[in-house]
Amino acid sequence: MNGGSLIKELQEMRDDGHLSDALLRKAVRRISEDERFDWVGVYLLRDDELWLHNYVGEPTEHAKIPVGTGVCGRAVAERRNLNIPDVSKEENYLACSPEVKSELVILIRAGDDIFGQIDIDSEKKAAFKEEDEITLIGIADKLAEQLAAERREAS
Ligand code: SME
After folding, report:
1. Residue 101's closest CA among 71, 79, 75?
2. Residue with the nearest Cα to atom 5 of ligand 1?
3. Helix%, strand%, coil% for the chain, nearest 5
């Protein structure tokens, strides 16, 4: 995954006037090109629920996830990224597909404001390395910049 070139592309989209909707779709498509990642999506936080914005992969029944529920909801409740090497050991887990073995959730946040998250599933155990987390945090931060700017404009 070439995070640097995607972050540059996202900034160019911002400079050209694209809104967060386009950036979120671009980010999911580009991240999903990494063949270790079998499902890639973005959830946005609205009140106390995560709403699925867009994804690449098999359809999921988890289009809305309450904060605190599943790995996705727990990341928001605990305000931290979660790298789950073996989902079968998780009690609070919402299965998308029986094939999924590991999951990574990276929050899209600007300081204390959490806008949502990038959620990635892999059919391999322990698929996500520290360098993936660092790359994805950079991408999530760029998405958060745009979401924060839109929130400021709306208020
Ligand atoms: N596994 C997630 C649910 C989302 S699906 O993986 C797309 C969870 O436990 O919150």
Report:
1. 71
2. 96
3. 40, 25, 35
Query: Strand order of the sheet with strand 64-66?
Result: 64-66, 49-56, 39-46, 113-122, 102-110, 82-84
Pairing of strands 82-84, 102-110: antiparallel
Under 8 Å between Cβ of 144 and 42: no
- In the structure, which protein residues have their CB atom closer than 6 angstroms to any atom of ligand 1? 39, 41, 60, 62, 65, 70-73, 93-94, 96, 103, 119, 121
Q: What stretch of H or E contains 139?
A: helix 130-154
Q: Closest Cα to atom 2, ligand 1: which residue?
A: 94
Decide if pLDDT at 2 tops 90: no
Q: What angle do CA 115, 22, 93 make, to 5 degrees?
A: 45
Q: pTM of the predicted model, to two decimals?
A: 0.97
In the chain the domains, ranked by start, together with CATH numbers, are 3-154 (3.30.450.40)
Q: What is the mean pLDDT of residues 86-102?
A: 95
Ligand 1 center to 32 CA (angstroms): 16
Residue 12 has pLDDT above 90, yes or no: yes
Residue 78: Cβ within 10 Å count: 11
